[in-house]
Design a protein that fits this description.
CATH superfamily of the largest domain: 2-methylcitrate dehydratase PrpD
Domain MmgE/PrpD C-terminal: 268-437
Domain MmgE/PrpD N-terminal: 23-243
CATH topology of the largest domain: 2-methylcitrate dehydratase PrpD
GO molecular function: lyase activity
Family: Belongs to the PrpD family.
Distance between the termini: 44 Å
Largest sheet: 4 strands, mixed
Protein name: MmgE/PrpD family protein
Amino acid sequence: MDLTKILSEHVASGGAISPDDALHTKQSILDQTGVMLAAGSLATDATPFVELARAAGGHHASVIGHGFKAPVTLAAFANGALAHALDYEDTHDETLVHPHAAVVPAALAVGEMIGASGAEVLNAVALGADITCRIALGFDESPESEHGFLVTPLIGAYGATAASARLLGLTAEQVEQAFSLTFNQVNGSGAVQLFRKSHFRATRDAYNAQAGVTAAILARDGVNGFENVFDGPAGYYALFAGGRFDTAAILKGLGEVFEGTRVSFKPWPSCRGSHAFVDAALTLHSEHQFSADDIDEVHVDVSPFFVTIIEPRDQRNRPEAGPAAKFSIPFTLGVALTKGRVGLEDFAEDALNDPSVLRLAEATRYNVRHDWTHRQSTRGAVTLTMTDGTTLSGEVVNPLGHPSNPMSLDALETKFRACAAYAARGAETRDIDEIIRLIETLETLDNVATLTQALS
């Protein structure tokens, strides 16, 4: 079975999505664009990417929340940097990818450049997110477990490629070459997870989105890379998984099930790996009405995949910047237990030195649950030892936002409005109600530029 050619043919000629899949995809576009708006003022990590796009000039595509246009690849680059910088966008919990963070910036940029309809962009987003998830489903275990490559955060580049290729009308042969050109642009090192000053974890989808758009345009114009991108002897899974991959999992329901519609939306602006702990902590806080001073010690059970956001302890206990704090179980748990909430304001610079939060972060101990599979990575358990010697415990398998434990539609809209209020260009420059309406009726738009310019 030729996996690469099957996926390439699907990208080139797959049919339209169902009304239900369209609804879920529009919810993801609403969520993702709201987070991008908020990042415009809150995520200083993304500022150099935006300014690079601004300096280039151009008129192809809008940079969300900033009121200017840039060449299509740089618009995708800037918007991609905004997409994950707050770590507040949706997640496919089963694989831990963020399937819309690169796909939405790429699809909006290419769609605006070519004058695509809202329906065409909607289908491209659903397709691209699905491809991202399916490539991730091919790994039987964490692809970061046996080598130093950073793999999972960069899978979105292939989704961005698929979305761009669909909008540009590439043939199956051209799609395969676009995938190969993406492969040769995007690779990463796990060292970024240990370097305190790294901006890469926050802005990685700039590279993913730009690579996908660039690869699709070059393949359209006749540039070739190589064949058998995913399943060849020197292909993706050979290099990153020792040749071990689950073809059946990748292809199951292809064209009928769109995995990007099975995402979890984030109620809290931190790494999804912290959410089970926040969820459990907030439940305990609500039920028992304790104060931070009542807690002597915190113990957590964590999956093997997310040990990286509890270690190294000196970095996780006292994060030096907001992005680092979002990737810390001890810190986010400390916020939840101290304040009974976790919001965007809790990762501002002046909030990182709260003594009660830091004391609880220091008081956090952990146990790695090796019996939890990679597919259970977002699971977590919390036990509090109180100063009077009593204990309180809670475990969460599917944190709030998961399809089986969903956020309401009203909650998603409220989140969008809250995010839009932080836009670099203030809310007075755009009609939030109109943007929500445009996304809700995206498939009726003759030109997606109506939406992108409203977001700009």
